[in-house]
Amino acid sequence: MKLLFRVTDETVGSGRTCIAWRPNGNTLAMASANKSVILYDRKGAIIDVLDVTGELPICLAWSSVSELLAIGNNNGNLFIYNHKLSRKIPVLGKHQRKITGVAMTKQDQILCCSDDNTITVSSPDGETVKTMTLSAEAEELKIGEVKRPGGNVDTIVSAVLGKKTLFMSTLTEKSAATENEADNSMNLQFQEKYGNIVAHVWYNDGYMIVGFEKGFVVCISAHPSEMGQEIFSVAEYKTYLAAVAVNEAFGKILTIGDHQIKVREMRELNDIFVIMDVDTEKDLSEVQCSLDGQLVAVAARGGGVSVYLTKMPSMGAAYGDTLAQRSIVINVAIEPSVIAVGPLHIAVATNNRVWIYDVHHYASNQPVAESDYLSTVIDVKLNDEYICVAMDGKARLHRVGQTKA
């Protein structure tokens, strides 16, 4: 892994920093100790700073289906930020005490857990539709999926209760808690030698990696026939373990602790793929992967975040007998997320901008045209005269060098 950029505690403040990648991997949100939420692009430039009314943001989560960002704070208030519209919805008094965890379902429901021993389920505009009462203070809120016989998929909410118990409950379609709510819930406890639970993550349809403060990593099943069964366990770190994450794109499990990142193969947990030292004097606190697996962000307990590039994406396009592939030979203005080639031009794009280069005169490294669009560019196609740009469910067609459709 290669260090891409680093944000120091001078920017985010001295204290715990919560981090979350937007699913497209282009935006990293940091809930910082200086009572703000800062959005960074993948190169480390600040996109926006969100005012959370002077309260301390504790946790945050992006939607996987829209551009919503949910933020929970130390006073029990929830903030819902629409990244596309740059609009923030404050939801005051969501919980009576500090919100310790937040997660979002594929239906854009917002789940929050709190020190008040409850989990709330809210609509995308913040209206509470369900409340679960728990036996202890909750943290480490996550959402997973388990396939059932017949092809049905259950959405499961999980959280750590009192640092000792792993709570799981099936989310139903009902708008309120029922008398049978407890029938859908389960509490799992682990061997005393592991110590307190510090982190867990879902992966691979119904399995979980659980990390413990004494350095142990345990894989368990959430399938009904083998619920809670330990499939794998290892003493990963000697001093402490801070967090775990999954890189589904590359099939890897990541853990951090003892000033190191360790990566294991998802299909064969006995195999360590890489061990890397993290250059910081502070203990580590959190690790998050972008959805495409290209970027890994690691937060330090006393403030500061380091972002690493895991692997250079393989990207290319072809037109007739012309081939364009991203490499280090041709210098372009940016690191592209999309590349396209036509009979006369090569186009590269990132975020909402496209640069166009002449196929036969690319050595000058100067684009022949640049265009900005209203939203993130998803794909580009070229012919000898026109460019077609796909974005946010729409396509714009115009002549190369022009921006009008």
Automatic annotation (TrEMBL):
GO terms of biological process kind: cilium assembly; intraciliary retrograde transport
A Pfam family reported for this protein in Swiss-Prot or TrEMBL: Beta-prop_WDR19_2nd
Record-annotated WDR19 WD40 repeat domain positions: 321-401
Ranges where the WDR19 first beta-propeller domain occurs: 17-303
Cellular component, GO, one term: cilium
UniProt-listed Gene3D superfamilies: YVTN repeat-like/Quinoprotein amine dehydrogenase
Keywords tagged on the record: Repeat, WD repeat
Stored PANTHER family: OSMOTIC AVOIDANCE ABNORMAL PROTEIN 1/WD REPEAT MEMBRANE PROTEIN, WD REPEAT DOMAIN 19
Name the record gives this protein: Uncharacterized protein
Native source organism of the sequence: Strongylus vulgaris (Blood worm)
